[in-house]
Amino acid sequence: MRFETSTIKDIAKALGLSTSTVSRALRDRYEISDETKKLVLAYAEKVNYRPNPIARSLKERRSYSIGIIVSEIANNFFSQVINGIESIAYAKDYHVIISQSHESHKQEKLNVEHLASRSIDGLLIALSSETQDVDYLRALYAKGLPIVFFDRVPDNFDTHKVIANNFKGSFDATEHLILSGKRTIANLTSSQNLSTTKERLEGYKAALAKHHIDFNPQLVKFCQHGGMHSDELEQAVKALLPLNPDGIFISADRLTTGFIMALKKTNPEIVNKIAIAGFTNSNLVELFSPSLTSVKQPAFEIGQVATELLISMIEAKRPVTEFETRVLDTQLVTMQEI
């Protein structure tokens, strides 16, 4: 049996009105009387009328869909960002299409090009850890595809960007370790390509400098894939432990949880001898063992702000030429506060 839905023509015929009158009433146009609007809306509700999104997109030359690229949906931070994106997108009648790069530049590019071929109205993207060349994004942007970057952003790309205060978050975490009496503090971090890595490394260095602790580059270990591969993490742990750190600042969500697992697997006897402070948006921090001080990012709000900025670009009547980088504060959460 073929499923059939009521159309504007059906409503118009049933009520003895023109299709244009019914269409305007459904869109709450000022030229239609309140009485007629009530009549049309009541009947539309009765027959369970729903607008045809395909007809709407053809008429307005828009798909009412937004593409999203993240490295991994299972990452606590990115899943919360997506929730924020959806809260704004759905409220404004946009659908979202989510793709994962898995920290691969090649996969990121394929996903973006596929989304663009499906005529998305705009793109929200956090760059993969491998991405250094964003020329393919510049080409799509130049052709008129609105793009807003969040979290992991490129330099010299004139569009809106939404990030956390990475410098402050890493400074606060590192200083907390220092004030707890730690002096040999390691830094486990992500790919050197990422803007987040650079900003968090600077915050770590600044906290050391403030407390007159020399920066030791050997105490900094980069994980190209941000903790997605367990051997990468285990190698970093093995490289750090001979340096006898009494504290460690970890600058990415998956790295933080992954480090604890890798430490338990490779050196369980020293698990409780190293103080840990790291970026994580996990809701289960209080269950972690050993315990850690966490830097929480306003992930949901980042998603909301990025989506609002993107939709403002999509719906702008004229080309947008002025852009901003929104920086949202992080929160340091110690075990005493949980």
TrEMBL record:
Protein name as annotated: LacI family DNA-binding transcriptional regulator
Signal peptide limits: none
Recorded coiled-coil stretches: none
Source species of the chain: Pedobacter rhodius
Domain HTH lacI-type: 6-60
HTH cro/C1-type domain location: 7-50
Matching Gene3D superfamilies: 3.40.50.2300, lambda repressor-like DNA-binding domains (1.10.260.40)
Record-linked InterPro entries: Cro/C1-type_HTH, HTH_LacI, Lambda_DNA-bd_dom_sf, Peripla_BP/Lac1_sug-bd_dom, Peripla_BP_I
GO molecular function annotations of the record: DNA binding
Keywords: DNA-binding, Transcription, Transcription regulation
Annotated SUPFAM superfamilies: lambda repressor-like DNA-binding domains, Periplasmic binding protein-like I
